[in-house]
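User: For my dataset I need records formatted as: sequence, then structure tokens, nothing else. Please produce one.
Assistant:
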Amino acid sequence: MNQSHSCQLCGRAPARQLVIRRHVGMLFLQRFIKIQPTLCRECGTRTVLQYTGRTLVQGWWGLVSLFIANPFTILMNLVALAQARQLAPPQLSSAAAADAYQARGQTYVLGGE
């Protein structure tokens, strides 16, 4: 899990790949959703909390969901949340900063020239 990558949502670094899960329990069926994005601390925390919130609402319907699947999903999301929180505060990387300046119609010189 490399922490030098930039975030897939905002372009800031440091970021790392997180495994985030969501579970939907139904009376006779279950649905598991798993994503593995590379996210910074802020985007990772927000995404984990969104997925966990939906799991807390939708995950309890069914006996297997109630006692096994939903608690497992919540526990694994707590691990992902801890991993996201361990990252340093996100900052724009040089490439992301250059892209942001170009998007505004400005030029950005790398290397201090």
